[in-house]
Amino acid sequence: MFTFNDTARLQESELIAELRAGRESAFRMLVEMHQDKVYNTALAIVQHPEEAEDMAQEVFVEVYQTIGQFREEARLTTWLYRITTTKALAHLRKRKAQKRFSRLTSLFGINNEVLHDPPDFHHPGVALEQQEEMSTLFRAINRLADAQKVAFVLHYIEDQSHREIAEVMQGTVSAVESLLHRAKQNLRKQLTPFYQERKNP
């Protein structure tokens, strides 16, 4: 007897087959089904709407170009999250390197634009009255170590289970639990002064 998961797997296999055959309609369906997940995940990590939009496009282009290499050992969604988080972290590392280079060259009087930290942004689904609080939270998330950041975003923003995150990060469930525990500890240290200030203005 087929379960819902079996049916979903069958539909996903059919979509993958259509993608491998180069069907544009299948690619459009893939984008429609997953563009919000990809964009929101990228946005939560890079914290810049325009960069997240560009990154989402890059993710789907890579999927289109490399779908033939996809082995159906994991779900298509898992593969998409893996590509998205890998690209987002690479983008952050590149941004930090550019920022360090800008500061270094400015010491020697070389005319070079200084790259600043991303401005406050508003994540989709955040109520207006919560935007200040969420901006503070996302700035704190941005300071987490890469692995902690990915685990936290996937679990608390994208609502992925520990097992699903382990598949995305190609690790174990216990490793994910440890990352989430450390992420919460680090965020608590960063955010405690903010909440104390709001409680005692």
UniProtKB/TrEMBL annotation:
Coiled-coil region list: none
Does this UniProt record's set of keywords contain Transmembrane helix? no
Q: Name one GO biological process term.
A: DNA-templated transcription initiation
Q: Is this entry keyworded GTP-binding?
A: no
Give a GO molecular function annotation for the protein. Answer: sigma factor activity
Residues in RNA polymerase sigma factor 70 region 4 type domain copies: 139-187
Q: Output the CDD domains linked to this UniProt entry.
A: Sigma70_r4
- Name all RNA polymerase sigma-70 region domain ranges: 30-96
- Alphabetical keyword list: DNA-binding, Sigma factor, Transcription, Transcription regulation
The family note in this entry says: Belongs to the sigma-70 factor family. ECF subfamily.
**NCBIfam families recorded:** sigma70-ECF
What is the name attached to this protein's record?
RNA polymerase sigma-70 factor (ECF subfamily)
- Species annotation: Larkinella arboricola
